[in-house]
Specification:
- The structure is a single chain.
- The chain is α+β, with helices and mostly antiparallel strands and 355 residues long.
- Helices cover 46% and strands 14% of the residues.
- Helix 1 runs antiparallel to helix 10.
- The two termini are 30 Å apart.
Length: 355
């Protein structure tokens, strides 16, 4: 799936649009085109015929994306053995063979200057002597990814880190054939002192059909809702709340006592208690929070899970940065073109936006 489709799918919707007519809204919007009413009636009829064809095209496109989802589900099964092996190596359950560990960087090291090789060997020897205990697997693999990726790092709090050191794997599961389209993120933890769950889940529900009220806005599947899970925290270990103590004075007797109260605090683990959209979709702050949640879930699915080792090493971050730089250059170029155009002609009138 290309980046355009990634973005359109991740955007989601905060609320539902109420139908306004028996006809799709797109049929009504055509009359908002300037001078449309001045067209001959026969031409208007043909335009409506074209829009009906466009609607049929949108419905075919929806079927296309349903089949794409089935292909994703099929190939997820082919990827799974590699992801299972990755988990075994990360957790130290298995030790990869020398052949499995061969990589071209080993050959590059042979081409280094002799003095650099000696320096590298000395530093490696010092590092080995500093750590008497041989590390198991790849320590803090997933926590390191959280720290490397800005989107995830913004959610990460210092009190989350000791818990995420116990994170062993993140996987994605797609809905079965015949079920509503969705995907589930699964966060697998080793036994720890913070909660009793071995797996925390987040389900993202998707829609891949044109909206009856606005069919021509369809750009592919989109996330429309999500559900978290209950975390069974050990006593006093819930990092999504903090305990505050307050003095409370009795109105009659004047005596003072100390009371404790739990108040919410920022934590990555709030990710598993998502907010819900309002029925009318009129809360902009809530819509923004939901859109950010949908984007994060999509990023886990499309980027982090399939390319985890590259986010661990930072190589995937370089690719993401390069793509963002290209976008910035394109935007700057467009602005320059517009500036050159405006120096010789009057500024264009404000764009008329359809509501």
């Amino acid at each position: 799936m290309d980046r355009k489709n990634e973005k359109s799918e991740a955007k989601g919707k905060g609320g539902n649009k109420p139908p306004q007519s028996d006809k799709p809204e797109g049929f009504l919007q055509v009359e908002r085109i300037p001078n449309f009413n001045l067209l001959p009636k026969s031409v208007k009829r043909r335009v409506y015929a074209l829009k009906r064809l466009q609607l049929q095209s949108a419905n075919i496109e929806a079927k296309f994306y349903e089949e794409v989802h089935e292909l994703e589900r099929k190939y997820a099964g082919l990827y799974q053995p590699m992801f299972d092996k990755r988990r075994e190596i990360v957790t130290g359950a298995v030790e990869p063979t020398d052949e499995e560990c061969e990589w071209q960087s080993d050959k590059e090291e042979e081409e280094l200057a002799a003095d650099l090789q000696k320096k590298a060997a000395l530093e490696e020897k010092q590092a080995d002597s500093a750590s008497a205990v041989e590390p198991k697997g790849i320590p803090e693999f997933w926590l390191s990814i959280f720290k490397h990726v800005d989107m995830l790092g913004e959610m990460l709090q210092e009190h989350d880190e000791p818990i995420l050191k116990h994170l062993q794997d993140i996987t994605v599961k797609f809905s079965e054939p015949g079920q509503p389209m969705s995907f589930t993120l699964e966060f697998h933890f080793e036994p720890n002192s913070f909660f009793s769950n071995s797996v925390l889940t987040k389900v993202y529900k998707m829609k891949s059909e044109p909206d009856a009220a606005d069919p021509f806005s369809f750009e592919g599947p989109e996330i429309v809702d999500c559900e978290g899970c209950k975390i069974d925290w050990q006593k006093g270990k819930d990092v999504t709340v903090k305990i505050v103590k307050k003095k409370q004075k009795h109105k009659g007797r004047g005596t003072v006592r100390m009371v404790t109260k739990e108040i919410p605090q920022d934590s990555f683990f709030n990710f598993f208690s998502p907010v819900k959209a309002t029925p009318d979709g009129m809360d902009e702050d809530l819509d923004f929070t939901l859109a950010a949640d949908f984007e994060t879930g999509h990023f886990f699915r499309e980027r982090v899970i399939p390319r985890a080792v590259l986010y661990f090493t930072g190589e995937a971050l370089e690719d993401d940065d390069s793509f963002e730089e290209e976008e910035d250059l394109d935007e700057e170029g467009e602005e320059e073109d517009e500036g050159d155009f405006n120096t010789t002609k009057d500024p264009p009138p404000a764009e008329c936006k359809q509501q």
